[in-house]
Amino acid sequence: xxxxxxxxxxxxxxxxxxxxxxxxxGLTKHNPLxxxxxxxxxxxxxxxxxxxxxxxxxxxxxxFVIVAEAVFIxxxxxxxLASFLGISxxxxxxxxxxxxxxxxxxxxxxxxxxxILFVKTYGKYTKWLAILIFIGAVVIVYMIDPLIFKTIxxxxxxxxxxxxx
Length: 165
Known about the structure:
The chain is mainly α. Helices cover 76% and strands 5% of the residues.
């Protein structure tokens, strides 16, 4: 059953402001945890708004991933996924996800999932939230590793251009 949209515009506007504050605070304090925590209510609202089987699954995975990201950053847990798996990256649903420090992999996965949500969902509010999540995820990646940021940003721009065509 579709979620009510009576207050969805206002909620999305507020969540946009929340993300802007989270990005500004995270960048000025050089702390990706701040941005991750400000991104959490956006992901929670995305979980609430999504309805389809694949989009609901993607939003729940994003919720798990953002919580795991916050835990890994807060406790300074380092885990090199690339060394563990013996590969530098993996294609997920047609998008390249660079592997390495798990704290980069988590937001990279979120960026890919947000692109999938943007493409697969029909609702304007879930698309809006997917854009916010993508922005927050790539900002977190940028704060952790600016080189991998370029790869993810290029993927997002390419997908956006493909949607326009």
